[in-house]
Design goal:
Two copies of one chain form a homodimer.
Chain A: E1 2-7, H1 14-28, E2 32-38, E3 51-54, H2 65-70, H3 75-85, E4 90-93, H4 97-108, E5 118-124, E6 131-135, H5 145-163, E7 170-174, H6 184-193, E8 199-204, E9 215-217, H7 220-245, H8 249-268, E10 276-280, E11 285-289, H9 295-310, H10 313-320
Parallel strand pairs in A: 1-2, 1-4, 2-3, 4-11, 6-9, 7-8, 7-9
Antiparallel strand pairs in A: 5-6, 5-10, 10-11
Helix pairs in contact in A: 1-9, 3-4, 5-6, 5-10
């Protein structure tokens, strides 16, 4: 039995979408116990299929660490605490990223030997069905070469737990692929990473989404800039495509004719499929769904939490380090 | 009279495209003298409209700094040297970026007071006709807060010389916009940059191309990852759109109907319009066209060189610092 705690209240769309996601998920999974944290009244409709832990408040999206720690009756705080108390295997929230990361690190604690937990984000590549795992995309801001070495190890464990196979290509993002390229940090990390048999060297940012790389390592600052930059451009281009297809009667007709051929692209660009990012390096599977998740994407984040918990990702990391 | 030196041989497509670009350019500009560096025989067709400086070899694209310095008869070395000898206002090459950057720094020398020259790249935004200026995108790998402060100053001078108006929004790319966000470098640079009246704070990578930012400052490593990441995704999505529109008879018909509405997007995504990047901080206008430039994009890079030289960008930087 896999046991997962869910912060039912934290996202922009509140309990309406989390309740729907939980109902759908439990229809398909009979080996999972859900502990739902939230307002008892609104969770009434699912009281027979989940265990409810009542919470009294919701952390705001722009919540600071101090507030997150103090507001002990919030759904996020109570959910993360419940992981330890209930001996659960994972926790999921669509609330404030900052609060979730700090609370999971402070309450669930780091895995022994882990220096810095990292935020990991699976990302679609140009090869249909193939994802690349990016880390750190923003849990940390300043890293040591040893951090990057550990990120690779943790990314490997994630890859295996999520996709059921070994990562064959672990790369470090750099400003070039020749020896001698890189900043001070990547040059030192590159030396350390060569101890990892699945490390295949530097990769340039333009090739990260080509589909050859399995685990892509960045320091947390650069990874955050990469992820947000790429998401920004994809969103901009997606928006422009939509505008173009709705600009005139003629282009609308064009869309009807081309629609079918655009399906693979639209599917690939659908970030809702990915569901969420994960804080890796703490003693649980801590998944952060997008703040603006709908029931579909929250459901995907829940499936991710379940899969990683079932495949014992945390144990894999312990073995890997 | 504006005097520009051109390495006619360096790009992937050699003199065929540079000759065509020079011919077209000179038809439209009678206040510009071109000094063409290359194989005398192949430059024969333009010997009446330019001054020719013969060169005997071409640096390979993957050329190291040592080779670039030693191979003194190369078109790149001779072009950059000619800037000093001929008192030219600018230099343009489509050859090896590494060689061009090193030679321009070593031979043309840094502007007094400049710590680190930077590679600057203008980039289209979602607002048609509005570009954002990104720097450093890869001339340096490890920067000090003072470097970032100077990058902002140099970016301002570029913006004014290229677009004829003051940069109103200078931003520093960061992993968040709240005070307290950032890595050690950006936190310190943020304090320094507040001395600049046009500095309006941190920007997240996802908003860089929104069209509000005029000059966007990165350390050279992060800027390189951002630029290449964004180019990679844009290229991937462009390729997928093309595939979708050519996938079937129906989608081809759809393209014919929607084509007109897609024009603004296709124009925006056309990186050939931008022409090239610039090494800023040396004693000349040093423009590096894309290695795979065609006559059109090389012509745009030439126009950029001419515009910046005519508007005395180098003098502006001297005043700014």
């Amino acid at each position: 039995m896999v046991k997962i705690v869910i912060d039912m209240m934290g996202g922009d769309n509140g309990y309406a979408i989390t309740i729907e996601a939980v109902k759908n998920f439990l229809k398909q999974h009979d080996d999972c116990e859900i502990i739902a944290v939230g307002d008892e009244k609104v969770l009434e409709p699912i009281k027979d299929i989940v265990k409810i832990i009542p919470s009294q408040s919701i952390l705001p999206m722009e919540c600071g660490v101090m507030q997150a720690m103090r507001q002990k009756d919030s759904s996020c705080y109570k959910a993360i605490s419940a992981v330890n108390e209930e001996k659960a295997d994972g926790v999921l929230s669509a609330g404030s990223t900052g609060a979730f990361l700090s609370l999971a690190t402070l309450i669930n604690k780091k895995i022994p030997g882990v220096e810095r937990p990292a935020l990991i984000s699976p990302f679609p590549t140009r090869i249909p069905g193939k994802s690349v795992v990016l880390l750190d995309v923003g849990a940390t801001s300043d890293n040591s070469p040893e951090d990057l070495y550990q990120f690779a190890k943790m990314g490997e464990a994630y890859y295996k737990a999520a996709y059921g196979e070994e990562a064959k290509n672990i790369n470090l993002v750099c400003n070039g692929t020749e020896e001698g390229k890189g900043n001070d940090l990547t040059k030192k990390a590159n030396v350390l990473l060569k101890q990892n048999p699945h490390y295949t060297g530097y990769i340039e940012a333009r090739h990260v989404l080509d589909g050859k790389c399995d685990v892509c390592v960045f320091d947390g600052f650069t990874g955050n800039v990469f992820l947000k930059g790429v998401e920004g451009v994809a969103k901009m281009m997606g928006g422009m495509m939509k505008e173009a297809f709705t600009a005139s009667f003629s282009s609308k007709m064009g869309y009807l004719l081309a629609k079918k051929s655009f399906k693979p692209m639209i599917k690939l660009m659908d970030y809702k499929r990915v569901g969420g990012a994960l804080l890796i390096g703490v003693n649980t599977v801590a998944v952060k769904a997008h703040g603006n998740s709908d029931a579909y994407s929250f459901g995907n984040a829940l499936t991710l939490t379940y899969t990683l918990a079932k495949n014992k990702m945390v144990d894999q990391i312990k073995q890997n380090l």
